[in-house]
């Protein structure tokens, strides 16, 4: 969880029931912060490998949408990408018409690939907002060995996480960032990083039958272009498939052509989809890549 004055970002993985946290978050915002209305809400995730293993309402996109519709007004739900391949689900709301002051406005934003959540209290904070996700599957088994405990007695936890950071090169994604990483027993890895007031987060499931790695950040592109980030991650995980999403506020001095071109060709991969969505106040670019000659 990343907490700002104007938003909360909550990202989860596995079978965590993220949406069940929303009523409590809204109650805390109302009772303790006097924020009684939501400015905008966003929830997103990649299509699950094993939806039957998820708890209600997360085992069905229609049920997730129905749950969100009970909490928010002015919502819209989308399936982005091929329904007979890897795709991405997005639910977002439009700003309400009855918010008349900054003190009344708040934003609760949800993202996942796995899942994520973000709560924003000032509508002008939407003016320069960008989130990049890279969601990778079918990871190289040789590379995944680094995400297992080498010694079950002393290689887990933060010590094991630091070892993974060094050996994989993950610490070099943003060298000046504060990085808090954790290696689970017998395998699995999570990390949260802070660079000034921006974040990045990584989750890795290395098992051969369901290997998956997710990366998300809102760090400004001055610290690295989208293409540079993609190539660094591909070199570390060597996925058979990956999805990239770039979600950015409109009117931030970046034209749509430049945004679409940010998902350029990746050496060794075939781009199966590149889709631009024009939402109310936001642009979304979705890219789907598969390894060439897989």
TrEMBL record:
Species of the source: Gigaspora margarita
Gene3D superfamilies on file: S-adenosylmethionine decarboxylase
Pfam families the record matches: SAM_decarbox (PF01536)
Homology family: Belongs to the eukaryotic AdoMetDC family.
Any one GO cellular component localisation term in the record: cytosol
Gene Ontology MF: a single term: adenosylmethionine decarboxylase activity
Pathways involved: Amine and polyamine biosynthesis; S-adenosylmethioninamine biosynthesis; S-adenosylmethioninamine from S-adenosyl-L-methionine: step 1/1
SUPFAM superfamilies on file: S-adenosylmethionine decarboxylase
Transmembrane segments annotated in the record for this chain: none
Designated name of the protein: S-adenosylmethionine decarboxylase
Presence of keyword DNA-binding: no
One GO process term, biological-process aspect: spermine biosynthetic process
Alphabetically ordered keywords of this record: Polyamine biosynthesis, Spermidine biosynthesis
């Amino acid at each position: 969880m990343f907490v700002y004055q104007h938003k909360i970002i909550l990202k989860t993985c596995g079978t965590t029931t993220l949406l069940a946290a929303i009523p409590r978050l809204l109650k805390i915002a109302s009772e303790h912060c006097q924020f009684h209305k939501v400015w905008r809400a966003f929830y997103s995730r990649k299509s699950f490998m094993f939806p039957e293993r998820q708890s209600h309402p997360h085992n069905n996109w229609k049920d997730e949408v129905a749950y969100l519709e009970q909490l928010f007004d002015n919502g819209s739900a989308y399936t982005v990408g091929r329904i007979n391949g890897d795709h991405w689900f997005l639910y977002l709301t439009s700003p309400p018409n009855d918010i008349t002051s900054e003190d009344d406005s708040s934003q609760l934003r949800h993202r996942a690939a796995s899942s994520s959540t973000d709560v924003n209290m000032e509508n002008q904070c939407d003016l320069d907002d960008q989130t990049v996700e890279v969601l990778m599957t079918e990871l190289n088994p040789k590379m995944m060995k680094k995400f297992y405990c080498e010694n079950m007695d002393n290689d887990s936890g933060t010590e094991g996480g630091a070892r993974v950071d060094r050996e994989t090169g993950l610490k070099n994604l943003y060298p000046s960032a504060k990085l808090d990483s954790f290696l689970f027993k017998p395998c699995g890895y999570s990390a949260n990083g802070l660079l000034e007031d921006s974040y990045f987060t990584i989750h890795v499931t290395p098992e051969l039958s369901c290997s998956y790695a997710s990366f998300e950040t809102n760090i400004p592109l001055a610290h690295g272009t989208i293409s540079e980030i993609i190539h660094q991650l591909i070199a570390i995980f060597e996925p058979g498939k990956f999805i990239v999403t770039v979600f950015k506020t409109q009117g931030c001095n970046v034209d749509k052509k430049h945004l679409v071109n940010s998902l350029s060709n990746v050496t060794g991969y075939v781009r199966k989809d590149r889709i631009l969505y024009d939402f109310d106040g936001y642009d979304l670019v979705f890219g789907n890549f598969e390894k060439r000659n897989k």
